[in-house]
Design goal:
Elements: E1 5-13, E2 16-21, E3 24-32, H1 35-44, E4 49-54, H2 55-60, H3 66-75, E5 79-83, H4 89-97, E6 102-105, H5 107-111, H6 113-122, E7 127-134, E8 137-140, E9 145-150, H7 151-156, E10 165-170, H8 182-191, E11 196-199, H9 205-212, E12 219-224, H10 226-229, H11 235-243
Parallel strand pairs: 1-4, 1-12, 4-5, 5-6, 6-7, 7-10, 10-11, 11-12
Antiparallel strand pairs: 1-2, 2-3, 7-8, 8-9
């Protein structure tokens, strides 16, 4: 039986560790000003994977919190997955050379699909496509805009591209502790031949149980942030459930 990967999340805004509500930069809660220390804390709790987002970069279209990201990579002994404003071959190459295990491409996946294909070919197993959804449609530019493209349609475009995984986020639940949209995540995982990572709304251990039950259906992992920071989810417990 397949196990689930738990990705603790570190979202960066102006060098600080924050969580947003529904991707709104004006609704940020600050959880710390030392991202590298947070990364070490997650590692000490047993995490082997980490999900990092340069929120400022997602809106700017280029790296903004580069110094903080480099500190995280240096501090975390496991695999770091990074997204936020990575939209050029040079940016992908730079982060992989600096030790990032996987690069997440979001907005560019919709606007420049060939870019994703080229990067997936150049860096096998190291490119993740972010499929962010609001009411079933793809959201872009840090979730500030919503396209007319259904999530499944975008995902299918990359089935033969060699991407490592799809990162599926229900924007309407992100940072609100409403519970992960397990049904939509599993439906996407069954619909495409690419592993799916769930994100958005994880409220507690029940979400980990629910997603772990579908690891065999193609749900590779889950990203959790606010639930960890607020103490609603214990990382050690989540890792134990995910490993079963």
């Amino acid at each position: 039986m397949a196990s689930l990967i738990v990705f603790p999340a570190i979202d960066l805004k102006r060098g600080q560790v924050v969580r947003l509500a529904e991707g709104d930069m004006d609704r940020a809660t600050v959880y710390g000003d030392d991202p590298a220390a947070q990364a070490r804390a997650f590692a000490d709790a047993g995490a082997t994977h980490l999900h990092v987002v340069d929120l400022d970069g997602a809106f700017a279209g280029e790296s903004v919190n580069g110094e903080a990201v480099r500190g995280i990579v240096a501090a975390f002994p496991g695999r770091v997955q990074l997204g936020g404003g990575i939209r050029t071959p040079e940016a992908v190459a730079a982060w992989i050379e600096r030790g990032v295990a996987r690069v997440v491409i979001g907005t560019a996946a919709l606007e420049q699909p060939q870019f994703v294909r080229d990067m997936a070919a150049a860096y096998p197993g190291q490119i993740v496509v972010a499929v962010d959804a609001r009411d079933g449609m793809v959201a872009t530019k840090g979730w500030a805009e919503v396209s007319t493209t259904p999530v499944a349609d975008l995902a299918r475009r990359f089935e033969d591209a060699g991407v490592a995984a799809l990162l599926f986020t229900d924007v309407g639940r992100d940072g609100l502790l409403k519970g992960c949209n397990v049904e939509a995540t599993v439906a996407l995982a069954r619909d495409v031949r690419i592993p799916v990572i769930a994100s958005g709304g994880v409220a507690g251990i029940d979400d980990i149980h629910a997603l772990a039950a579908h690891a065999g259906d193609g749900v590779e992992g889950v990203i959790t942030g606010r639930a960890l920071y607020d103490g609603r989810l214990d990382l050690g417990d989540a890792l134990r459930v995910a490993a079963r």
